[in-house]
Design a protein that fits this description.
Cys_alpha_HP_mot_SF, Coiled-coil-helix-coiled-coil-helix domain-containing protein 7, about 120 residues, flat, disulfide bond, mainly alpha, COX23, 5 helices, two-stranded antiparallel ribbon
């Protein structure tokens, strides 16, 4: 294979990879922001760490809140995959996400996921 052919083949492969990455990014983003339903909890815990470098015990509540948030959304992803015939562990779309958020207080009490009525 000549150098020119090899360069052309590499360009084709790079174009395919770029397309795959764009498809992947569309599935894990809302517009230009990556899907992170626990973004606020993450930011608050990071700020607490920055402000309390000497004593991270002061940040325990922030860490616990972030941990509960991640556990809830992981449970939602698992529920959607098992019971709603979703093929991947994706987060719900933006409009559905708001409906799931209304279930957080119930989940905190029972640790069981029940889907919103209108999904």
């Amino acid at each position: 294979m000549s150098l020119a052919e090899n360069i052309e083949k590499n360009k084709e492969n790079q174009a395919k990879l770029r397309e795959i990455q764009q498809k992947r990014d569309r599935n894990i983003t809302f517009g230009h922001e990556f899907k992170d339903p626990c973004k606020n909890e993450r930011i608050l815990s990071q700020k607490c760490v920055e402000n309390n470098r000497d004593n991270l015990g002061n940040c325990k509540d922030y860490f616990d809140n972030f941990k509960k948030c991640k556990q809830f959304w992981n449970a939602v992803q698992e529920y959607r995959c098992r019971h709603m015939k979703k093929t991947r562990h994706d987060l719900p779309k933006e409009d559905e996400l708001k409906k799931w958020k209304s279930k957080i207080p119930e989940w905190i009490q029972t640790q069981r996921i029940t889907p919103p009525d209108d999904i």
